[in-house]
Amino acid sequence: MKALQFSATGDLAALAYVEVPTPVPAVGEVLVHIKAAGLNPSDVKNVLGRFPYTTLPRIPGRDFAGVVVEGPQHLVGQEVWGTGRDLGFFADGSHAQCLTVSAKGVAHKPSHLSFAQAASLGVPYTTAWDALERSGVGKGTRLLVIGANGAVGSAALALAKIRGAQVLGAVRRPEQVEALREQGFEGILLGQPEALGGQVNALFGGGADVIFDTTGFWLPAAVAALAPFGRIAIIAAPVDGHVQLPALALYRKGGSVVGINSLLYNCEQCAVMLEQFGRFFDEDLLPLPTGLREVSLADGVQCFEEVNQGSADKIIFLP
Q1: pLDDT tens-place string over residues 32-84
Q2: Below-50 pLDDT ranges, the chain
Q3: What's the 3-state SS for the chain?
Q4: CA 143 from chain center: how many Å?
Q5: For residue 240, what pLDDT is reported?
Q6: How wide is the angle at C-alpha 39 spanned by C-alphas 272 and 216, nearest 5°?
Q7: Is 188 exposed, middle or buried (0-12, 13-18, 19+ CB in 10 A)?
Q8: Which of 70, 118, 156, 251 could form an S-S bond across to 31 if both were Cys, CB 3.0 to 4.6 Å?
Q9: Dist CA 315 CA 317 (whole Å)
Q10: Chain centroid to CA 170: how far?
Q11: Residue 238, pLDDT score
């Protein structure tokens, strides 16, 4: 089969489009014929050597959608989707024509999603779902999502709305505020960090119960916008990994910080999440992805370069 593969890390030049043997599923595994596979920034960072536990040689790719062609009889022929920390790191990933994965590591693909749409959602939606779960977002929760226009931020808004939360999005540009309002969400414009507390308190009297910072830059400012006993969920940090946290203000509010890392969950754990929220697409409660850029897997090496250079396109490989 054809696949993208790298045998060294540290340089995207190590990635190549090659012929490799089609994998054979072990007992308890399925062989999935990949119909579409998402390209995430973490896939690019993997080739660049940012994850020291990756074993080589390796086929990258975490997110996929396809059809089961071998495995337990009740799954053969089923349209499935999946994601997880195993793929591309400890086991070969989805940037190939086929992959093997635990039979419990695939979820039934929502019928309202195309293969390409399903392959675009794994990492962002499981990350958002985990953030909402672990920070206790439910009915009536006052939630602020910083970076609400990004893939994870948009997923968090949509999933929180289903949970009955009061949702507020924070973005950088006026047109992004307008886009949020067109989607039915209140939005605020991010400016000076010291102004965030006042902006949030003007809309959520007493502050936000949960603040989800998807950018890595607003953790210190978020403390002033937090309600008593509030939670701040984070998925990113500055390049050096450090921020100046106003600890006195945080503990006086009884606040807490929740780290969210999608790479803590294997394919089986992610499949449980996908089954939980996947039904909302078929119930027309979640928006269908748009604006995807579908690319032949043969042109995948160039796409890794583009993402590394800062491209915001959501790229989907079609093997």
Answers
A1: 999 999 999 999 999 999 999 999 999 999 999 999 999 999 999 999 999 99
A2: none
A3: CEEEEECCCCCHHHEEEEECCCCCCCCCEEEEEEEEEECCHHHHHHHCCCCCCCCCCECCCCCEEEEEEECCCCCCCCEEEECCCCECCCECCCCECEEEEEHHHCEECCCCCCHHHHHCCHHHHHHHHHHHHHCCCCCCCEEEEECCCCHHHHHHHHHHHHCCCEEEEEECCHHHHHHHHHCCCEEEECCCHHHHHHHHHHHCCCCEEEEEECCCCCHHHHHHHEEEEEEEEECCCCCCCCCCCCHHHHHHCCCEEEECCHHHCCHHHHHHHHHHHHHHHHCCCCCCCCCCEEEEHHHHHHHHHHHHCCCCCCEEEEC
A4: 19
A5: 86
A6: 80
A7: buried
A8: 70
A9: 7
A10: 18
A11: 83
Give residue 296's Cα distance to chain centre. 22
Terminal C-alpha separation, the chain: 10
pTM of the model: 0.96
Give the separation between CA 213 and CA 237, rounded to whole angstroms: 10
Q: Which domains, from first to last, does the chain contain?
A: 2-109+289-317 (3.90.180.10), 124-259 (3.40.50.720)
Between CA 25 and CA 70 the distance in angstroms is 7
How many other CB atoms are found less than 10 A from the CB of residue 272? 13
